[in-house]
Design brief:
The complex is a heterodimer. Chain A is an all-beta fold. Helix content of chain A is 0%, strand content 49%. In chain A, strands 4-3-6-7 form a four-stranded antiparallel beta sheet, with no helix packed on it. In chain B, the strands form two sheets. In chain B, strands 1, 3, 5, 6, 8 and 9 form a six-stranded mixed beta sheet that branches. In chain B, strands 2-4-7 form a three-stranded antiparallel beta sheet, with no helix packed on it. Chain B is elongated and about 90 Å long. The chains are: A mainly beta, B alpha+beta. At the A-B interface, strand 4 and strand 5 of A face strand 4, strand 6 and strand 7 of B.
Chain lengths: 111, 174
């Protein structure tokens, strides 16, 4: 894993009521190279390197899956919604085109 | 009088040689711009002599994905900046009032930027467990362009929202 890649932050609301629809914000550090950029010193093209697959699991269920291209910004930040109707772990998995897999799990405990 | 016939006055000299040099220059410039028959049009509009980057047409892309299905411009709202100073980070917020119940939900959200080399930015598959047909993502934009969000329900209906974002510095490099 290259340095500075794959640091994950997930933000949830402080309190979650049962059945409430909550916003989950997730950020991952990743260069998301397009393959169009050039190294200014060597004049060589920087090869493409980006995340193309994101999966969100709530409990054992795959609830959201996202397909990305090079047009997603550096250090991708996404927001999705979730109906918090059970106490279960929420797992987000990012996969990049060089085989890197980055994941983080947070616990959802509705009151 | 005799002398004047032989030598040019200063003004005359400048205008004549000036025109001549401009004419020479323009011939040279044209010669370098117009390819000498062999090269195709694409080869000389390619950026900075690099291999041509194919710019895909958004309408063709949409036709490939959706065919001739009708897309309704309703039920979807998109929040995006009017002017994005940095095309590398443009926050796009898609929201919808469509229901998210088992049997009647939004299956997929597609995102397109018309003037990017590759107009398809990404898509997200949703399920009723999301509770709300909404998604937000930060994207890259090469230049000022329309951004399209297209929602597909599990019954196959399509809804869309379009917004123009002005970009002052492009974010795709190259």
């Amino acid at each position: 894993m290259p340095k500075g890649v794959g640091k994950i932050k997930i933000r949830l609301p402080k309190t979650v009521n049962k059945g409430q629809v909550i916003a989950v914000k997730a950020l991952i550090t990743h260069p998301m190279e397009t393959g169009f950029r050039k190294n200014k010193k060597t004049k060589k093209k920087i090869p493409a390197y980006y995340i193309n697959d994101v999966s969100v699991y709530y409990g054992n269920e795959l609830i959201t899956h996202s397909d990305w291209t090079i047009a997603v910004s550096t250090n991708p930040f996404m927001t999705f919604y979730l109906k918090a109707d059970k106490t279960a772990p929420l797992k987000i998995v990012w996969k990049d085109i060089k085989g890197g897999v980055y994941e983080k799990t947070v616990q959802i405990t509705p009151q | 009088m005799k002398e004047k016939d032989v030598t040019f006055s200063r003004r005359e000299f400048l205008t004549k040689t000036g025109f001549a040099s401009v004419a020479l220059l323009s011939v040279g410039a044209l010669g370098s711009v117009i390819p000498s028959g062999k090269g195709s049009v694409a080869s000389w509009i390619a950026p900075r002599g690099a291999e041509a980057v194919e710019v895909k047409d958004v309408n063709e892309e949409l036709k490939k994905t959706f065919g001739n299905r009708k897309i309704e411009m309703s039920h979807v709202t998109m929040k995006a900046p009017i002017i994005a100073e940095n095309g590398g980070v443009v926050p796009i917020n898609i929201n919808s009032d469509l229901p998210m119940e088992p049997g009647n939900y939004v299956k997929k959200i597609y995102l397109y930027v018309d003037k990017n080399f590759e107009p398809y930015v990404g898509s997200v598959d949703l399920t009723p467990a999301n509770g709300k047909a909404a998604f937000a993502l930060r994207i890259k934009m090469r230049k000022t362009s329309q951004v399209r969000a297209i929602l597909e329900t599990n019954k196959g209906k399509l809804y869309a929202a379009v917004k123009t974002v002005k970009v002052t510095i492009g974010g795709c490099g190259g």
